[in-house]
Amino acid sequence: MATFGAAPAGNHNPNKSFEVIQPPSDSVSSLSFSPRANHLVATSWDNQVRCWELTRNGASVTSVPKASISHDQPVLCSAWKDDGTTVFSGGCDKQAKMWSLMSGGQPVTVAMHDAPIKEIAWIPEMNVLVTGSWDKTLKYWDTRQSNPVHTQQLPERCRALTVRHPLMVVATADRHLIVFNLQNPQIEFKRIPSPLKYQTRCVAAFPDQQGFLVGSIEGRVGVHHLDESQSSRNFTFKCHRDTTEIYSVNSLNFHPVHHTFATAGSDGAFNFWDKDSKQRLKVSLSLSLSLSLYIYMCVEGLSLTSIAVSHFFPEYVIRTISWLNDVRSQIDMV
């Protein structure tokens, strides 16, 4: 039996990843790669937004802390502007901040809600910021104005959001999935009950905007096509399970070139899948931990993936680590 309060036993880095310098001191809530440079942003429950510059040196990857800003309460989400100059973040202080990272400017509040902001995304095709909140609203913002350009009521609290213009999918509590055509963003295009029986954790739009993935706390992923004539191609599958335990699916991300996708789960593993052939392509070694594990994974560039690992014992955070992986070894599987 493990000693109460003791560090978890086992190999915490079986995949030989690279740990960033000065990682967050509390649980990581989101990760975002810059679309223009080797910069990684992480938000965390210690109220911080941190940025590192990443450099490849042969077979190794090094990280240099570049800058950080603070919120008044835990930060839950982040997004980059498409030009790579600006970071947006939102959290439990009910506000979204715009941080002109490249110019060294001070953060500016650009959005407000009546409850924590769970999701945030920049939509370059519309030049607007979208925020999803636990106040059961979705808001669109012109960052030059103090009031939202549109407020969309949601049936429940926002849990997850994915955008690939013109497709946007919002997952809410009570297993609602609301689909928007951003060419007419003020009207719901379709509302779908989740194909999964339990609470939604994450969603990811297909690269071709023809459908989306949805992951749940029950270790299961749903593949859903929007065109009803393609409904025969919809399916669900189990993942992040062993013979006796079921783990949450915490992240879904498509590879930007091969359009395979990765799932990351509370079992400490990340898996790679091909939805068209319905195959698992590769599975990572699982971190050997006796405590619950939450991993957030980003696949937003050709060079690196980023994984955040947070260990919990009941309500207390034991340790938080941010990992970097060389994606070239993962491309070999395709």
TrEMBL record:
The lineage of its organism: Eukaryota, Viridiplantae, Streptophyta, Embryophyta, Tracheophyta. This is Protein RAE1 isoform X2. It comes from the Eukaryota. Residues 1-23 are annotated as: Disordered. InterPro entries: WD40/YVTN_repeat-like_dom_sf, WD40_PAC1, WD40_repeat_dom_sf, WD40_rpt. Pfam families: WD40 (PF00400). The gene is LOC115737977. Keywords: Repeat, WD repeat. It comes from Rhodamnia argentea. The keyword Transmembrane helix does not apply. SMART domains: WD40. WD repeats lie at residues 21-62, 68-109, 110-151, 249-283.
